[in-house]
Design a protein that fits this description.
- The protein folds into 2 domains: about 5-65, no CATH class; about 70-224, Four Helix Bundle (Hemerythrin (Met), subunit A) (Up-down Bundle).
- Helix content is about 80%, strand content about 0%.
- It contains 7 helices and no strands.
- The longest helix has about 35 residues, at about 155-185.
- The radius of gyration is 25 Å and the shape is elongated.
Length: about 220
């Protein structure tokens, strides 16, 4: 039986929710499950004749203080955040590695003189950065898979290392990719009006924004 005056239960859930960081859907599922368990406990106490407010106090105390409950929940949220970051990196890096050269193919300047050696090195570096991101994403998913089957401490360390690697790869990719675009426009005026270049800038910008949100979510979930 549910009651509208279960204020102590809701207060406890708000306190728990305010301290959690991670994917919104999983966070909501954890709190929903906790609410159901708490209200079941309240109902059980009330059926035994315990006054409503006291029933809530006992249910909350039995459920556990934040310091007891939150660590396992936050660890679950951190894993989910890493999974999301890894999946996004897998998709974005895969597309960029496979289709990066399409931005330049058929351009009016592609048959002209070769760009400076430093430019070619930067272009190759961008490709390798995203290849590294692709490999890290696969590693992250494998580590998460292994962690679901084992509680060995080194797997938690590996999760954090992969998350740091993915975040660093994103930062490098954004910096190197941005520099490459700016240098390209400086070398070839036509690059600014070349349709594949414009489409590429929009797609890469959207991808970097999506990855940045996922990386920020992982950092916040892990920092708690």
């Amino acid at each position: 039986m549910r009651h509208a005056d279960d204020f102590l239960v809701e207060e406890h859930l708000r306190d728990l929710g305010s301290r959690l960081q991670g994917p919104a859907r999983l966070k909501s599922e954890l709190l929903t499950e906790a609410r159901s368990d708490l209200l079941d406990a309240v109902d059980a106490y009330r059926e035994r004749g315990v006054p409503p407010t006291e029933a809530q106090r006992r249910a909350v105390a039995e459920f556990g203080a934040p310091a007891q409950v939150l660590p396992s929940w936050q660890a679950e949220l951190a894993v989910a955040a890493l999974r999301g970051l890894s999946l996004r990196m897998l998709a974005v890096a895969g597309v960029l590695v496979a289709a990066g050269d399409l931005t330049w193919r058929g351009s009016s300047w592609s048959a002209g003189p070769q760009p400076p050696a430093a430019y070619r090195l930067l272009s190759a570096s961008v490709d390798w950065i995203w290849v590294g991101g692709l490999l890290l994403a696969v590693t992250g998913l494998l580590v998460i898979w292994a962690s679901a089957r084992s509680s060995r401490p080194h797997l938690a360390v590996a999760q954090r290392a992969v998350g740091i690697g993915l975040t660093g790869t994103l930062a490098l990719g954004m910096a190197a990719g941005g520099a490459l675009f700016v240098w390209s426009i400086d070398l070839w005026d036509a690059a600014l009006t070349w349709p594949p270049m414009i489409v590429g800038m929009v797609v890469v910008g959207a991808a970097n924004f999506s990855l940045s949100r996922a990386a920020r979510g992982w950092v916040r979930a892990t920092a708690r």
